[in-house]
Design a protein that fits this description.
182 residues; mainly alpha; 3 domains; 8 helices; TetR family transcriptional regulator; coiled coil
């Protein structure tokens, strides 16, 4: 990803006058370079002391006895040291996982709300269906009573009302009646 951190390490080592000895020091420097360039061989690529030691194949105790330890630890603590791409991607993954959890939570809440709405609609439909059945039964009873000669139900002259309505007099009469009562 970025060679500037590796160059910064080499410059810091030269400036401090710390030689890179073959063996442990050289393994640590090469591991640092592999991690910051995004090509680790033995770790996930996070730029930490633990992963650096694992990548170099040395123990942390051996690392801390090395004269490089103070310089590398100081470099890692500076906020402007470029991090390998894996650190950036790890942060992106964490951010995306958090966003996914938020979206899943919102989706679950919307589903619960939709289920509650559906249940309410189902209750209303059931109540309206029952009321419709009651009205149909009442209507059937009234139609039956209409055909009974001794019943107290009489048919209205529907055709004359329709004609009055078409001519507008029905509307006028209703308006006059409302004015009189109001």
């Amino acid at each position: 990803m970025n060679d500037s951190a590796a160059l910064r390490l080499r410059h810091a080592l030269e400036h401090a006058g710390v030689p890179i000895r073959p063996g442990t020091d050289q393994a640590v420097v090469h591991a640092f370079e592999r991690i910051v360039t995004g090509t680790p061989e033995h770790t996930s690529g996070a730029l930490t002391i633990s992963t650096l030691c694992k990548e170099a194949g040395v123990s942390r105790a051996t690392y801390y006895r090395s004269p490089l330890a103070k310089i590398i630890t100081g470099l890692l603590k500076t906020p402007d040291v470029p991090r390998p791409q894996t650190d950036v991607l790890t942060a992106d993954i964490a951010r995306l996982k958090k966003a996914e959890r938020t979206l899943r939570s919102q989706h679950a809440a919307e589903q619960r709300e939709a289920r509650a709405t559906i249940a309410t609609y189902a209750d209303h439909i059931q109540a309206l269906t029952l009321r419709n059945a009651e009205l149909e039964a009442e209507n059937a009873a009234l139609r039956e009573a209409l055909h009974q000669p001794d019943g107290n139900v009489a048919a209205l002259p529907v055709t004359s009302l329709r004609q009055a309505w078409r001519q507008g007099s029905g509307v006028q009469r209703l308006g006059d009646e409302a004015d009189r009562l109001g």
